[in-house]
Amino acid sequence: MLKSPASSQTKPLAVNQTKQRTKTTFALNAKDKYYAWIFLGPSLLILSVFIFYPMIKTLYLSLFLTNTVGKPTVFVGLSNYISLLTSADYLSSLGVTMVYVFAVTILTIAIGLVLANYASKELAGIGIFRTLFSATMGVSVSVAAIFWLFIFNPSTGFLSLISTWLHLPQIGWLTDPTAAMIAVTITTVWMNLGFTFLILLGAIQSVPTTLYEAANVEGASPRYQFLHITIPMISPTLFFVSIITLIEAFKSFGLIDLMTKGGPTNATNMLVYRIYKDAFYSGNFAQASAESIILTAIIALFTWLQFKILEKRVNY
Amino acid sequence: MSITLRNIRKDYDQNTEVLKDVSVKVETGEFFVIVGPSGCGKSTLLRMIAGLTPITGGEVQIDDQVVNELPPKARKLTMVFQNYALYPFLSVWDNVAFGLKARKLDSADIKQRVDNALKMVSLTKLRKRKPRELSGGQRQRVALARAVASDAKICLMDEPLSNLDAQLRIKMRQEIYALQRKLGLTLIYVTHDQVEAMTMADHIMVLHDKHVQQIGTPSEIYQTPANDFVAKFFGTPQINILPAKRSADNDHILNVSSDLEIALNQPVPAENLKIGVRPDDFKIERADGVSSNAVVKNTEFLGNETIVYATMNSGSDIHVVVDGQVAFRSYEPVKVTASSKLLFFDQNGNRINLAKEALVHA
């Protein structure tokens, strides 16, 4: 127990007697300094073991050549990075990832916004739709992948059945490079939609109703109200959701692994999946490490850009 | 533009009736105040006029047109909300321009109207600020400017001053009144504050318990309240309502709860009744134990006057306003007498009209 000099003197002051010393000093003494370590210690330990050490180790490995079990052998400086950034194969992965990430982010937010806007209306039975639209939050990646694999199945899938009925040409959803990209994008958007929908619905519902009432009285159309009240009012949330979705899309792994394994012909070989294959199939840990560092840099760059571009518009 | 309400009714479902049989005509250019305790349905009534809440029964008519089915924007009116409903992401100027832009008016026209409206509420210097950078009173003015910028001649206000402190409320009250007169607006103003109603209104409608209790000018409402509820609602401190009886011996004598006798110059209108005495119509003086009819509980000094709370010997609590500062001690015996004016209510609280009220003297 710390005993401060003030606490020992608890006698009430007489009415006309002024208190002698009211100033309390909060300077740390030598003993107090350990408190910082006691309070921060556990989280620092966990962060060090699971975040800082792997990050530094990855950076370290990316500057070496490694053997098949991942031990560094020869220091090569930046040559891993240079060879990656000059390889057509890697650049194609980069391009594919960009297309995928932007398609997923834009579609998820656009569809989520439309659904949330409709679901925010007070209609009979709207609770059912709110539950349904957010249901994909509870679906695991593996279940979603299997579910959509059935739909995309070339012989018995739902989509090919529709094509047969309508006498449309059959599409090899997971065998055609373009179609595979579309298929993976659709599945990812579907998976993301629950979370995005729920967050946006919450944001839309928290816009004060008097703003709409005032706009109604002043003669603004529903469309005008959506564009000029709802969107600006939920812009902080839109910003948050867009960053989360973007980062999540960059990190997509499970769906790719379960649906296309990066194929056909690397058409869906996203950066994360590529890292995994380079490290654990090809045993090229150095190159995989360099790819990881590049991916981290890209995500950091996009996050920074989003903050730069959007921060002016979302703060009110 | 005048507004006519005919037998307006509002139910939220079969069992919860909020308003019943509200009928009134608000004339062009009138400052009309709807007043009542919280939960009496006054905001609901205003929202029905605005078209924000559906009407269960009856008719709302603006000029010659029944507008029951018209959307709010077709009713050509403006509304000021209790929380001002300002758009936090827009500057003061853009907030005022919002409705005009939404209606796609000519931009030169918008500029002129907004500048004009901001000038009228003296906010021109603050036009670039965001609402969060404004004080409560300034936000209130932005909301007013919005109503001014619109060319609608009907303005509805839903407790616009209730978020402001007492000083500012008095100031804004005068500004709203001046604005209404200057623009010739037909203004329907909802409040729970009887002082706002008394000071600004041309006509007041008192709502309570789903019904219209009375519609009248401030002085009619104050001097001839329709019932004891209205009498109690207007005037601070509240009117004293006391049970009274006609004396068995003399029908010109009124016995107020056996403590106080009041002689009238005409017969007491009923055998059992309630009387209303404004706090400044009582007289109170020190008395010895024999002649006293009440005991002082406590006093509140307000500067120019003092409120004395006392208990009559029969147990009724009264309060009396006395000019200046008086020094009554608690439990001091006093003699209370009623002076000049009285209001009479029957057992149900409805006021009894006397033939020549002005001649009634104690």
From TrEMBL, chain A:
Membrane spanning stretches: 34-53, 94-116, 128-151, 179-204, 225-247, 285-305
Topology class, membrane: Multi-pass membrane protein
Biological process terms in GO annotation: transmembrane transport
SUPFAM superfamilies in the cross-refs: MalF N-terminal region-like, MetI-like
InterPro entries: ABC_transporter_permease, MetI-like, MetI-like_sf
Subcellular localization, as worded in the UniProt entry: Cell membrane
GO CC annotations, alphabetized: plasma membrane
CDD domains recorded: TM_PBP2 (cd06261)
Principal location: membrane
Domain ABC transmembrane type-1: 94-306
Pfam family, one: BPD_transp_1
Keywords in alphabetical order: Cell membrane, Membrane, Transmembrane, Transmembrane helix, Transport
Entry similarity comment: Belongs to the binding-protein-dependent transport system permease family.
Protein name: ABC superfamily ATP binding cassette transporter, membrane protein
Provenance organism: Lentilactobacillus diolivorans DSM 14421
Automatic annotation (TrEMBL), chain B:
Gene3D superfamilies: 2.40.50.100, Nucleic acid-binding proteins, P-loop containing nucleotide triphosphate hydrolases
Keywords annotated in UniProt: ATP-binding, Cell membrane, Membrane, Nucleotide-binding, Translocase, Transport
MF GO annotations: ABC-type transporter activity; ATP binding; ATP hydrolysis activity
Domain ABC transporter intervals: 3-234
This protein's GO CC annotations: ATP-binding cassette (ABC) transporter complex, substrate-binding subunit-containing
PANTHER family documented for this protein: MALTODEXTRIN IMPORT ATP-BINDING PROTEIN MSMX, TREHALOSE IMPORT ATP-BINDING PROTEIN SUGC
Protein name: ABC transporter, ATP-binding protein
Species this chain originates from: Lentilactobacillus diolivorans DSM 14421
Lineage, top ranks: Bacteria, Bacillati, Bacillota, Bacilli, Lactobacillales
